[in-house]
Amino acid sequence: MLHALANGEEAAAAVSSPKVTGTAVEQLLRLPILELLARANSIHIANHDPNDIQKASLLSIKTGGCPEDCAYCPQSAHHREVSLTKEHLMQPQIVVALAKKARAAGAERFCMGAAWRKARDGREFDAVLEMVRGVNALGMESCVTLGMLEPHHAQQLAEAGLTAYNHNLDTSPEFYGNIIGTRTYQDRLQTLDYVRKAGVEICCGGIIGMGESWQDRAQLLAVLANFSPPPESVPINKLIPVAGTPLADQPPVPALDLVRMIAAARIIMPRSRLRLSAGRDDLTLSEQLLCFMAGANSIFFGDVLLTAPNASENADSQLLDAIAAL
Ligand code: SAM
Ligand code: DTB
Ligand code: SF4
């Protein structure tokens, strides 16, 4: 089912009962914004407690030196001009101690990212399994993103109790080749399929602001919505243009583009957890509230994402105070 959607809308039309087409999503994305927001909000509150904004904490457990060439990513070894200190895989005890600290600060989910092309058997993968078990033992949801997996990796992660595996499609099948040359859309879909089959939730989303069109944004959302079921969580990232990456000079994305993406995602994926992810630090408090009205119900919490700055803990306590009851 998943691989049938690799070519976007055409492939989506070929499966027996396509639920969502790229064209229909683009129509949603282009609606007058107040109408789009109203429609998204009514679906949001029918399916979720609007006060429930999940706080996820993110940690880079292995930083930099990645053999993939993702144009947006400061961790790619292809982008030599990026100023980043490479780090080996962290020790599980340290990771679990940091998860405990994040839990004390209010995080409910702990996401661990490794700059790997793919998981490999051996000591390092075993250490990741230990991290997953340690995070679960704290009563937190656990998520890892390790690049491509083979079925037995997904199975071992499932046995360790992993809640979710993050593996983003990033953009439309059509635009993908402009951003990444070292792996295909089909490779991504394959890993997601293994994860699903192992019984682990999938966390899969994308990035806006890489030079893609509205049609590409619509196609990405259509591919996600046509998963059966749609991903349990969907991170929507706004490009952080990092100096030294090929996308360093991309113009900034208007905040309302992000609101439109979230609203359309909420309409076509009513039950998924939508995470307002990278790029939140340059949104105002009111712009973030619009994202929550549109259906976002999760944020990354903590001063850093993987390597780039996030909204500060100070700004986030103001945000959380502002959305709490008086
Ligand atoms: N190597 C793994 C992989 O690619 O799946 C995991 C780590 S990777 C950094 C996780 C996700 O972060 C990417 O798929 C991308 O969507 C997002 N990301 C990376 N750099 C970003 C940037 N500069 N701005 C916004 N999102 C970014
Ligand atoms: C996701 O979609 N966004 C997060 C998480 N999944 C792993 C990562 C954002 C990374 C932003 C750039 C950086 O911090 O290096
Ligand atoms: Fe590597 Fe992931 Fe960055 Fe791509 S996004 S370069 S796979 S760490």
Q: Could you say which overall geometry the principal axes of the C-alpha atoms support?
A: globular
Series of H and E elements: HHHEHEHEHEHHEEHEHEHEH
Low-pLDDT segments, ≥5 res: 1-15
The helical percent reads 25-40%
- Identify the CATH homologous superfamily: Aldolase class I
CATH architecture: Alpha-Beta Barrel
Count up the helices.
Answer: 12
DSSP strand (E) fraction?
5-15%
Structural class: alpha/beta
Q: Report the sheet with the most strands, covering strand number, pairing sense and barrel closure.
A: 9 strands, parallel
Major beta sheet, strand line-up: 5-4-3-2-1-9-8-7-6
Record field, number of beta strands: 9
Distance, first to last CA: 48 Å
Bound molecules: S-adenosylmethionine, 6-(5-methyl-2-OXO-imidazolidin-4-yl)-hexanoic acid, iron/sulfur cluster
Q: Please name the CATH topology.
A: TIM Barrel
Q: Kindly state the mean pLDDT as a whole number? A: 93
User: How many separate domains?
Assistant: 1
What does this structure look like?
By secondary structure, the protein is of the alpha/beta class. The chain has a single domain, classed as Aldolase class I (TIM Barrel, Alpha-Beta Barrel), CATH 3.20.20. The chain is 40% helix and 13% strand. It is built from 12 helices and 9 strands. It has helices at residues 9-14, 22-29, 33-47, 92-104, 123-137, 151-159, 176-179, 185-197, 214-225, 255-268, 285-294, 313-323; strands spanning 54-62, 109-114, 141-145, 164-166, 201-203, 206-208, 233-238, 273-276, 298-300. A 9-stranded parallel beta sheet has the order 5-4-3-2-1-9-8-7-6, covered by helices on one side. Helix 10 runs parallel beside helix 11 (285-294). It is globular and about 55 Å long. The structure holds S-adenosylmethionine, 6-(5-methyl-2-OXO-imidazolidin-4-yl)-hexanoic acid and iron/sulfur cluster. Residues 58, 74, 111, 113, 145, 166, 168, 205, 235, 237, 240, 277-278, 305-308 line the site of 6-(5-methyl-2-OXO-imidazolidin-4-yl)-hexanoic acid (DTB). The site of iron/sulfur cluster has 8 residues, from loops.
